C-alpha cells in the first residue's frame, strides 16, 4: 500500500543511496530523477488534500504511485542481480573500474533504460499536475500529532438510554408467549446496532434463558449456504465447506434439537435472507428459541413476517456532547462554556451517530482546545465527501477527516488494512509483521520496528479507527468497521484486492495489482492465476485448499513478492525454486503438512518473519536458516523437531523465538536434537521467547550463559519442561536440580508476561516475586509445588491463572503467601485442578478491580469470602465448598456440580445458574436469595425439577423469583416460569417421564397462574383454586396399555368365532358383519380412552 506523500521521501532516499554507492549506476539519469521526485512531493500533498472531491487529482496520484512502483521494481531488480553475483562469488577486473564486479554491462543498460523511461514518465506526471492546477505545499507540520493525552475510549456503550433499551428487548426475547420468533434491529451504519446486540447477547438474563447462545457476523459475500455454514460453525459444528444445504440443515438440527436457542445475525443484507428462510433453524429448537438480526437494510423488516422490529434511535445532543468530550479528552469544566456551541454544531455534522462523534473527537484531541481550532474542523471540506457508493451522512465525512488527520507514516499503515477481509479479526502481531515487511514503519533510533508498529496499532485504536475485539482484555485483537473498510478501498481498489482473482478487478486490469488476499471460501482462484500477476508484492492464501500444483510457477513468476502466507493450505513440500523470492520478507507455512524445507531458503537474505507453527510433519530444519541475518521472527510453536541443525547465534535481530528446544550438551554438534541454551546469549533483541525441554539441562552454570537478565527488551517468556514420566512422584535430587536451573534463568525486570509449564521442582524459583512489571502470570502443571512464593511485589499483575498444580496445599500469608497490600491491579483470577488447595490467597481481597473469578476442581476449598469488588463467580466441581460469604457486589453466581454448598450470604445476587445432575432438592441458600433474583436457571434430574412444580415441595422457593428456567440434564427445557405474568409453561416432551397428572396452583396475589403444555393452556381462576387438571401424554400411554392389548386379544378371538358361526353365509355378508363388529368395538375403545 502506498501513500504518495509518504513514499516519495523513501524513493528519494533510495535514489540517493544508489548515487552514494560504489558506482556502476546511471548517475546522470538518477540525479534527474531525484530532482523530479523532490518537485513531485509538494504537488502530491496538494493532490491528496483534493482527492476526496477531485477525480483528476485521484487519477494524478494513481499515475504517480504507478511510477513509484516502477522505480521500486527497477531498484529491486538491480539489487537482486547484484546479490546473485555476490552469491556466485564472481569477480573480474571491472571491480577496479567504474562498473563493479557484481553488475555486468547488460544489467547496467537495462537499469539505465528503465530510469530513463521513468524520467520521461515523471515529466508527463509533473506536466499533468500543472494542468490540474496543483500547487506545491510545504508538508512541514502536516499530518497531525502522534501524541495523545488519554488512551483508548472503550466504554461509550453506556451512554444514552442503551441500558433501558437492552432490558426492554431482552424482555421481548425471553417472553414465552411472544409470537415474534425473530427480532430485527434496524439503523444506519455507526448508530450502535452491533453495540446494542452485543449487550443483549452478553447479558446474564439472555445467557440464563437460552441453552445455546451464538453470534454470527454476516459478511457481504456470504450467500445462503455460506450463511448457513457460518451458523453451524458458530453453534459448535465443524462444516468442511463442501456440504449442501440439506446436509448443513441436518448438522444444525442435530446440534439444536430440543434446545432453547438464541442466535444473533449481525449486519445482514437483503440478499442473504428472505421470508420464512429462518424457519428451518427454529423448528428443531426447544420452545422459546429466538433469532436477533441487525441490519441497515430497511427492506428486511418488510420481508420477515411476524418479526419484532426495533429502530435504533440517535443519541441526544447532551449524550453526544458527553461522548465528544471524552473522545477528545476535553476537560468540560475548563473549556465547556467556550466550546459547547461549536461542539454541538460539529455533532450536527456527525448526524448524531456515535461512531462519527468518536472519530471526530479523536481528531479534536490533536487540536488546541480553542474555538478557532474547532471551527476549522467544522468548516473542513472533508464533510462534503460523498464519493462512496454506500455513503452515510455524517459518518463518511467523519471518517474522511479522521483519515486525513493521520500523520503520513500512520496513514500509510492504516490504508494497508484495507487488504484484510470483511469482519476479519486483526491481530496486532500479524499486522505489525505486515507493516514491517512492506517497509511502512519509520526507522527510529533506539526503538525496534516491533515497538514502533505496536505504537502505530495503539494509536489507530486510540483514534477510534479500529475497534478492540469484544472480550479481549489486552486489546491485541481488533476489528475494522465495514464503512471504514469501504472508505479505504475506495482509494486503493486498483492496487488491493480481497476475494476471487480475475483478469479484471473492479473494472481495472489485474496488471499492476500489488496486494491480494484470497478468501478461503472462494475456491475458483488457482495458483496459475496468481502467478500470472507479476507485479504482486503480497499474496495471502491463509487456509485456502490450494495444494502443491504450480507452486513452482508461483515462486518463479512473482519476483517482487515480499509477503507470502500459505498457512493452513494443503501444501506438502516447498520446491527449491523458493530461492527465486529474493525480496521475500514474510513467509508463513504454519499449519501445513510440509515435511522439510529446502536448503535454498538461505537465498532469502531479506527474510524477516518465518512462521512454522504446528507443522506436525516437519521434524528438522535446514542449516540455511542460520544464515538469514535479518530474521526477526521464528515461530516453531507446536512443531516437534527431532533434529535441529541451524545455528542461531548469528541471528542478532531475532525478536520472537518460539519453540526453542534445549539440548543436553553445550555444543550443538554433540547433541543435534536441540539448541544449546548458550545460543541465546547473543540474541539481545528478543522480545518474546519460548524455551522447551528445560529438564534436559543438568548444569545450572550453562543457564547463566543464556544471560536472560541482560535482555532489556524481553516482554514475554514461556518456560516449559516435559515431565510425562513423572506423573506420581519426582526424585528429590531431580527437583533440586531443576530448581537451581530455573533460579539461574533470572528473567529481566521488564518482563510483562510469564508462563511456566510442567515445572517439577518442589519450590518455585526465587526470582518470581521480584518481577515488578509483570502483568500476566500463568502457572500450569506444576504438580509438585506445595506453596506459592510471596507475590506481594507484583503490584502490576492483572491476570493470574493457576492450573493443574495438584500438590498445592495452602497459601499461607505469614510464611510464603500474600500480604495485605498484594495485587491491587488484579482483574481476573482463575484456579483450576488444584485439589489440595484449602484457601484462596488472602491478597486478592485487596484488588480494586477483581470483578471476575473462576474456580474449577478445587476439591479441598471450603469457603470463599471477603472479596469486596467481585461481581461474577464461576465455581465447578469444588466438592468440599460449603460457604460463600461477604461478597457484597456479587451479582452473578454459576455453580456447576458443587453439591455441598449450603450457605451463600452477604451477597447481592441477581443471576444464578446451577448445573448439578446429582442433587435431589434445591440447596437452602437458593431460598435465602430467591426474592432478589432476576433469573434462576437449574439444570438437573427430573426428580429435582418435579419438586419445583406448583404446589410441590420447592414451589414456594421459586415462585418469588422473577424468571425461572428448568432444564433436564441434556439441557432440554422442562419448564419456564415468569413471576410478573404468572405464566408457568411445561415442555410437552417431559410428560413422558411419568410426572403427576395434576399440578397445584399456589396463591399468587392479584394474578391467576397460567399453566400451559405447549399450545394447550388451562387458566386457573383467581386465588384459592385448589387443583388444575393437566393432560399429559402419559395418560394416553396408560390408557393404551390398559385397553388396547385386551382389545386386540378379544377382537382376534371374536373374529374366529364369527367366522365359524357365519361359515354358511356368503362372503359379502361375512365381511359386512366383521366390519360392523370392528367399528363398534373401536368406538367403545376410544370412549374408554377418552374417559380415562
UniProtKB/TrEMBL annotation:
Signal peptide: none annotated. One of its GO terms (molecular function) is ATP binding. Belongs to the disease resistance NB-LRR family. SMART domains: AAA (SM00382). InterPro entries: AAA+_ATPase, Apaf_helical, LRR_dom_sf, LRR_R13L1-DRL21, NB-ARC, P-loop_NTPase, Rx_N, WH-like_DNA-bd_sf. It comes from the Eukaryota. This is AAA+ ATPase domain-containing protein. Keywords: ATP-binding, Leucine-rich repeat, Membrane, Nucleotide-binding, Plant defense, Repeat, Transmembrane, Transmembrane helix. GO terms for biological process: defense response to bacterium; innate immune response-activating signaling pathway; plant-type hypersensitive response. The keyword Protein biosynthesis does not apply. It comes from Miscanthus lutarioriparius. Coiled coil: none annotated. Residues 179-315 form the AAA+ ATPase domain. The chain crosses the membrane at residues 1043-1061, 1073-1091. The keyword Repeat applies.
Amino acid at each position: 500500500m502506498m501513500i504518495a506523500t509518504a513514499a516519495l521521501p523513501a524513493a528519494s532516499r533510495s535514489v540517493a543511496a544508489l548515487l552514494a554507492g560504489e558506482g556502476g549506476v546511471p548517475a546522470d539519469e538518477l540525479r534527474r530523477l531525484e530532482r523530479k521526485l523532490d518537485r513531485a512531493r509538494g504537488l502530491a500533498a496538494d493532490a491528496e488534500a483534493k482527492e476526496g472531491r477531485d477525480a483528476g487529482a485521484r487519477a494524478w496520484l494513481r499515475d504517480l504511485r504507478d511510477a513509484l512502483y516502477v522505480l521500486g521494481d527497477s531498484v529491486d531488480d538491480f539489487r537482486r542481480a547484484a546479490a546473485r553475483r555476490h552469491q556466485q562469488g564472481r569477480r573480474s577486473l571491472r571491480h577496479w573500474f567504474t562498473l563493479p564486479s557484481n553488475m555486468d554491462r547488460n544489467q547496467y543498460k537495462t537499469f539505465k533504460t528503465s530510469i530513463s523511461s521513468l524520467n520521461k514518465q515523471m515529466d508527463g506526471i509533473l506536466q499533468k499536475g500543472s494542468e490540474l492546477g496543483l500547487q506545491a505545499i510545504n508538508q512541514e507540520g502536516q499530518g497531525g500529532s502522534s501524541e495523545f493525552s488519554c488512551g483508548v475510549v472503550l466504554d461509550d456503550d453506556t451512554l444514552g438510554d442503551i441500558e433501558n433499551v437492552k432490558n426492554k428487548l431482552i424482555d421481548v426475547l425471553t417472553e414465552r408467549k411472544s409470537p415474534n420468533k425473530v427480532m430485527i434491529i434496524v439503523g444506519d451504519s455507526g448508530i450502535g446496532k452491533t453495540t446494542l446486540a452485543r449487550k443483549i447477547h452478553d447479558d446474564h438474563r439472555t445467557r440464563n434463558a437460552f441453552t445455546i447462545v451464538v453470534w454470527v457476523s454476516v459478511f457481504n459475500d456470504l450467500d445462503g449456504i455460506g450463511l448457513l455454514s457460518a451458523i453451524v460453525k458458530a453453534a459448535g459444528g465443524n462444516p468442511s465447506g463442501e456440504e449442501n444445504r440439506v446436509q448443513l440443515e441436518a448438522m444444525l438440527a442435530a446440534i439444536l434439537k430440543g434446545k432453547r436457542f438464541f442466535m444473533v445475525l449481525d449486519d445482514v443484507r437483503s440478499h442473504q435472507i428472505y421470508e420464512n428462510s429462518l424457519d428451518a433453524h427454529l423448528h428443531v429448537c426447544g420452545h422459546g428459541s429466538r433469532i436477533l438480526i441487525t441490519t441497515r437494510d430497511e427492506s428486511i423488516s418488510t420481508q420477515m413476517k411476524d418479526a419484532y422490529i426495533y429502530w435504533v434511535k440517535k443519541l441526544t445532543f447532551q449524550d453526544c456532547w458527553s461522548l465528544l468530550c471524552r473522545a477528545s479528552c476535553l476537560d468540560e469544566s475548563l473549556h465547556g462554556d467556550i466550546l459547547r456551541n461549536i461542539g454541538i454544531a460539529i455533532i450536527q455534522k456527525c448526524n448524531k451517530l456515535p461512531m462519527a462523534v468518536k472519530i471526530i473527537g479523536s481528531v479534536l484531541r490533536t487540536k488546541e482546545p480553542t474555538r478557532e481550532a474547532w471551527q476549522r474542523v467544522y468548516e473542513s471540506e472533508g464533510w462534503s465527501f460523498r464519493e462512496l457508493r454506500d455513503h452515510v451522512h455524517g459518518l463518511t465525512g467523519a471518517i474522511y477527516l479522521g483519515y486525513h488527520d493521520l500523520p503520513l507514516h500512520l496513514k500509510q499503515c492504516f490504508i494497508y488494512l484495507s487488504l484484510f477481509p470483511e469482519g476479519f479479526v486483526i491481530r496486532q502481531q500479524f499486522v505489525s509483521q505486515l507493516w514491517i515487511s512492506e517497509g511502512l514503519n519509520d526507522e527510529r533510533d533506539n526503538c525496534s520496528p516491533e515497538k514502533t508498529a505496536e505504537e502505530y496499532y495503539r494509536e489507530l485504536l486510540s483514534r477510534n479507527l479500529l475497534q478492540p475485539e469484544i472480550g479481549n482484555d489486552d486489546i491485541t485483537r481488533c476489528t475494522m468497521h465495514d464503512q471504514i473498510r469501504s472508505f479505504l478501498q475506495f482509494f486503493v481498489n486498483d492496487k488491493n484486492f480481497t476475494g476471487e482473482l480475475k483478469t479484471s478487478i473492479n473494472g481495472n486490469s489485474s496488471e499492476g495489482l500489488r496486494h491480494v488476499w484470497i478468501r478461503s471460501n472462494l475456491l475458483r482462484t488457482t495458483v496459475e492465476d496468481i502467478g500470472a500477476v507479476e507485479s504482486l508484492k503480497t499474496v495471502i492464501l491463509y487456509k485456502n485448499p490450494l495444494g502443491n500444483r504450480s507452486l513452482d510457477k508461483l515462486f518463479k513468476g512473482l519476483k517482487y513478492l515480499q509477503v507470502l502466507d500459505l498457512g493452513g493450505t494443503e501444501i506438502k513440500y516447498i520446491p527449491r525454486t523458493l530461492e527465486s523470492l529474493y525480496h521475500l520478507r514474510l513467509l508463513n507455512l504454519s499449519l501445513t503438512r510440509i515435511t522439510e524445507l529446502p536448503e535454498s531458503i538461505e537465498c532469502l537474505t531479506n527474510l524477516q518473519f518465518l512462521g512454522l507453527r504446528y507443522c506436525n510433519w516437519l521434524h528438522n530444519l535446514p542449516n540455511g536458516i542460520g544464515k538469514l541475518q535479518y530474521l526477526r521472527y521464528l515461530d516453531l510453536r507446536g512443531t516437534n523437531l527431532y533434529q535441529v541443525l541451524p545455528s542461531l547465534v548469528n541471528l542478532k535481530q531475532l525478536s520472537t523465538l518460539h519453540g526453542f528446544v534445549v539440548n543436553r550438551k553445550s555444543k550443538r554438534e554433540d547433541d543435534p536434537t536441540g539448541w544449546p541454551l548458550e545460543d541465546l546469549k547473543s540474541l539481545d533483541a528478543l522480545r518474546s521467547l519460548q524455551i522447551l525441554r528445560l529438564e534436559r539441562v543438568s548444569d545450572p552454570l550453562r543457564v547463566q550463559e543464556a544471560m536472560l537478565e541482560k535482555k532489556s527488551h524481553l516482554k514475554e517468556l514461556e518456560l516449559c519442561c516435559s515431565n510425562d514420566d513423572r506423573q506420581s512422584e519426582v526424585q528429590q535430587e531431580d527437583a533440586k536440580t531443576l530448581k537451581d536451573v530455573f533460579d539461574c534463568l533470572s528473567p529481566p525486570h521488564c518482563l510483562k508476561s510469564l508462563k511456566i509449564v510442567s515445572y517439577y521442582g518442589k519450590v518455585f524459583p526465587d526470582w518470581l516475586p521480584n518481577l515488578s512489571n509483570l502483568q500476566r502470570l500463568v502457572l500450569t502443571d506444576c504438580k509438585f509445588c506445595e506453596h506459592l512464593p510471596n507475590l506481594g511485589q507484583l503490584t502490576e499483575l492483572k491476570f493470574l491463572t493457576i492450573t493443574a498444580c495438584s500438590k498445592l496445599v495452602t497459601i499461607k500469608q505469614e510464611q510464603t503467601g500474600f500480604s495485605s497490600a498484594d495485587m491491587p491491579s488484579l482483574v481476573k483470577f482463575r484456579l483450576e485442578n488444584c485439589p489440595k488447595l484449602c484457601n484462596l490467597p488472602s491478597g486478592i481481597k485487596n484488588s480494586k478491580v477483581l470483578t471476575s473469578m473462576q474456580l474449577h476442581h478445587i476439591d479441598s476449598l471450603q469457603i470463599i469470602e471477603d472479596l469486596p469488588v467481585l461481581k461474577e463467580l464461576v465455581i465447578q466441581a469444588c466438592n468440599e465448598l460449603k460457604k460463600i460469604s461477604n461478597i457484597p457486589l456479587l451479582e452473578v453466581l454459576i455453580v456447576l456440580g458443587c453439591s455441598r454448598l449450603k450457605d451463600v450470604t452477604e451477597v447481592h445476587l441477581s443471576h444464578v445458574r446451577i448445573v448439578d445432575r446429582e442433587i435431589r432438592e434445591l440447596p437452602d441458600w437458593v431460598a435465602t436469595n430467591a426474592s432478589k433474583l432476576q433469573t434462576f436457571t437449574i439444570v438437573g434430574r427430573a426428580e429435582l425439577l418435579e419438586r419445583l412444580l406448583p404446589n410441590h415441595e420447592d414451589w414456594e422457593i421459586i415462585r418469588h423469583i422473577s424468571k425461572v428456567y428448568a432444564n433436564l440434564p441434556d439441557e432440554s427445557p422442562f419448564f419456564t416460569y415468569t413471576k410478573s405474568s404468572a405464566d408457568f409453561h411445561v415442555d410437552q416432551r417431559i410428560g413422558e417421564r411419568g410426572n403427576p397428572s395434576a399440578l397445584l396452583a399456589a396463591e399468587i396475589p392479584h394474578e391467576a397462574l397460567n399453566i400451559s403444555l405447549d399450545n394447550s393452556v388451562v387458566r386457573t381462576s383467581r386465588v384459592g383454586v385448589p387443583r388444575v387438571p393437566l393432560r399429559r401424554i402419559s395418560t394416553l400411554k396408560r390408557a393404551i396399555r390398559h385397553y388396547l392389548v385386551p382389545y386386540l386379544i378379544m377382537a382376534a378371538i371374536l373374529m374366529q368365532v364369527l367366522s365359524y358361526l357365519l361359515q354358511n353365509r356368503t362372503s359379502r355378508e361375512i365381511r359386512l358383519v366383521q366390519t360392523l363388529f370392528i367399528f363398534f368395538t373401536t368406538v367403545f375403545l376410544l370412549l374408554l380412552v377418552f374417559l380415562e
